[in-house]
Design a protein that fits this description.
- The chain has 13 helices and 7 strands.
- By secondary structure, it is an alpha/beta fold.
- The longest helix is centred in the first third of the chain and has 14 residues.
- The protein has a 7-stranded mixed β-sheet.
- About 35% of the residues are buried.
């Protein structure tokens, strides 16, 4: 239907959003202001049922990154990269409510952590969480990522946790904002969606993802806050994605090429999500008890990843410096 711009599934997704969040939310997407439309997607007054809330998914991700399902990536990078953090600064752009940033600050009390985000409601929640956790070496700042200015070679670490895929012109942003601000040995830490722009997945991937639903009982395929039984993974058209959130996955497929161009790759680990994310969207709440029901689905995605690039990746990248004779240092 209209190529990659619009699919029948977009109408189904719109109906699901209407059932879940009501007409005012749908109408909020018909604003001329792109930024306001984006911010409406990050309201923290709605409980989403997306794949990352599932404990078994979290353990699977931990194992792919750290080798231990009980060891988070924050613990992993603390042990491996955040040694001797006294006087050092970690910047997180697009921190949201700051769960990862608070954990990093707690694990590294000598590290200064600063989270930036455009959504003030999320920042308020982050500040409250930091107070409740008695974490004092973290601050949250309301800011537009494109207007941030940092002193040259003043920062040690940048964290992008599900945020870089919301930025356009990634190459320019990295070159103008990130590289100049990093110290000589500075690091970029990435935990990101790096798949097709606008999540415009090929039909073959959606078909493979839909096949996972055959292994899920019907009662666990009921979409959150509706009576709808999910029978297939939904394909997302570019028009609906733009209308819903103009920033969503705007240049996601360029992220890794840009980082490879400007940084030395210290490590890069595929996290998958190609099949699991579309299959479990809207029904993840049925699996918040970790009972091993998803093992078959995990096996199917692992098989798929043998021949396909992952849609989610964890990576650590070191700043490349160039001497006068153009040799890398």
């Amino acid at each position: 239907m209209l190529g990659a711009l619009l699919y029948w599934d977009d109408l189904i997704e719109t109906w699901i959003k209407f059932k879940q969040r009501g007409l005012p939310f749908i109408l909020s997407k018909f604003r001329w202001n792109n930024q306001r439309r984006s911010l409406s997607s990050f309201q923290n007054d709605f409980i989403h049922s997306n794949w990352w809330i599932i404990p078994a998914i979290q353990k699977r991700t931990n194992k792919k990154i750290s080798g231990d399902e009980h060891r988070s990536y924050e613990e992993y990078i603390t042990d491996k990269y955040l040694n001797d953090t006294e006087g050092k600064v970690l910047i997180s752009i697009g921190c949201g409510t700051g769960n990862h940033e608070i954990k990093l600050a707690s694990l590294n009390p000598q590290l200064r952590v600063i989270g930036y985000d455009l959504a003030e409601s999320l920042l308020r929640e982050g500040r409250d969480k930091a107070i409740q956790a008695s974490v004092k070496n973290i601050s949250f700042v309301h800011a537009d990522a494109y207007r941030l200015q940092f002193d040259t070679e003043s920062l040690d670490f940048f964290l992008f946790n599900a945020s870089l895929h919301h930025l356009h012109d990634v190459d320019s942003f990295i070159k103008k904002k990130i590289i100049p601000a990093l110290k000589k040995n500075g690091l970029v830490i990435l935990n990101e969606y790096v798949g097709p722009n606008r999540m415009n997945f090929p039909a073959s991937q959606i078909n493979e993802s839909s096949s996972l639903l055959h292994y899920i009982p019907e009662q666990k395929r009921k979409i959150a806050f509706t009576g709808i039984i999910k029978t297939r993974s939904y394909r997302l058209g570019k028009w609906r994605m733009f209308l819903s959130d103009p920033s969503e996955c705007i240049e996601s497929e360029n992220i890794l090429p840009v980082l490879h161009k400007h940084f030395t790759v210290l490590e890069e680990k595929p996290l998958g999500g190609n099949l699991l994310m579309p299959a479990l969207k809207h029904i993840a709440h049925h699996f918040v008890t970790d009972d091993g029901e998803l093992e078959k689905l995990f096996d199917l995605e692992d098989e798929y990843l043998k021949e396909n690039k992952p849609d989610y990746t964890f990576g650590v990248y070191s700043k490349i410096t160039i001497s006068n004779n153009n040799e890398l240092k």
